[in-house]
Amino acid sequence: MSESYIQDYIKAGKGVIAAKKLAKRIIKPGTLFLDVANKCEAEIIKNGCELSFPINLSLNEIAAHYSPPIDDITVIPEKGLLKIDVGAHFNGFIADSAFTINLDEDPKLQNYVDAAKEALDAAIELYNPGIKLYELGEVIAQKIINRGLRPITNLGGHELKQFNLHAGPFIPNFKEKLHNQVLKPGDAYACEPFATSGVGRVENGSYSYIFRFVKKVKKNMSYEQQGYMNKIQKNFGNLPFSPRWIINNNLIPKDKILRTIESFLGRKILDNYPILIERAKEPVAQEEHTIILDLDGNKIVTTQE
User: Fold this and answer.
1) Is 237 helix (H, G, I), strand (E, B) or coil?
2) 30 SS3 class
3) Residue 187 catalytic?
4) pLDDT (tens digit, 9 = 90+) per residue, 66-77?
5) Is 181 exposed, middle or buried (0-12, 13-18, 19+ CB in 10 A)?
6) Is residue 192 flagged as an active site residue?
7) Has 296 been annotated as catalytic?
8) 3-class DSSP state for residue 135?
């Protein structure tokens, strides 16, 4: 890695910061999820970056992966915890950040938000060369437990590499010594504590709204399907995408999109990201920043306003 790559991470972070600021201004009860998604994603592009994944707008017990589908009519409710997870990339170097809005400022729910924030702040403070990933998990868990809540143990942070959102090593949200990789200069990670009053684990929901191209298939493919497959790969690479983007880029006729996605999932051309639901259906708060160490080992939080 060179200094120029670090500047690309920082540039991506500026796109994410702009989208988060916009989200905070426009999110209010009665607003369509779809409007929030389209405007915030457009803000990233307006700031000279590209999208690294569809915006996640996950409410209450949905911990992650709800992104408005085509023609979504869901509106932001009067109360609850809404998690906004935003990603951008510049030259393939990704910034990933999330925050939680307590829609009616409920004091009980604010405890969840504060727990996730304190956990993230503690992890950022500790994030230095020589620290093991499970040591970050230990401080994350302690801050959340101190507030009478539980960390979600089967979600956590992830290493970022060029055009690779989940590059391998994992930052656990508790002390799990299996994750004993050591931080070193040049490393970039998204750190994301989740706090809940539930059992502290998520399970897959029945629906997926985010997809990713995995591989090409040639056998038993019509010319039309081959064309659609090639367009998806060319436009989105191996990064996650929303079917909304297929419409925005005029890749597939609207009435054929869902059928094409179902077919491509069945043939392993695409992978999917099911919504993730807290097992006890309890509310979840999330906070996330992208943290990098430059070549001298100095810490840069690229998505912090």
Assistant:
1) coil
2) coil
3) no
4) 999 999 999 999
5) middle
6) yes
7) no
8) helix
Catalytic residue among 41, 96, 118, 138: 96
Catalytic residue among 8, 41, 85, 159: 85
CA distances from 278 to 59, 172, 173, 201, 285 (A): 11, 17, 15, 6, 11
Domains and CATH numbers, the chain: 3-201+283-301 (3.90.230.10), 205-275 (1.10.10.10)
Token readout for 228 is 């659609």
List, in sequence order, every beta strand (DSSP E) within the chain.
50-59, 62-64, 81-90, 93-102, 150-151, 156-159, 170-172, 188-191, 194-196, 202-213, 270-278, 284-286, 289-293, 299-301
For 110-127, the DSSP string reads: HHHHHHHHHHHHHHHHH-
Enumerate helices (H) and strands (E) in the chain, giving the number of each.
7, 14
Output the six-digit token pair for 145: 């437990």
- 5-64 pLDDT, tens digit each: 999 999 999 999 999 999 999 999 999 999 999 999 999 999 999 999 999 999 999 999
Q: Is 85 a catalytic residue?
A: yes
pTM of the shown model: 0.96
HSE, side-chain direction, 13 A CA sphere, residue 54: 32
Catalytic residue among 50, 106, 121, 166: 166
Kindly name the residue from 138, 192, 278, 287 that is annotated as catalytic.
192
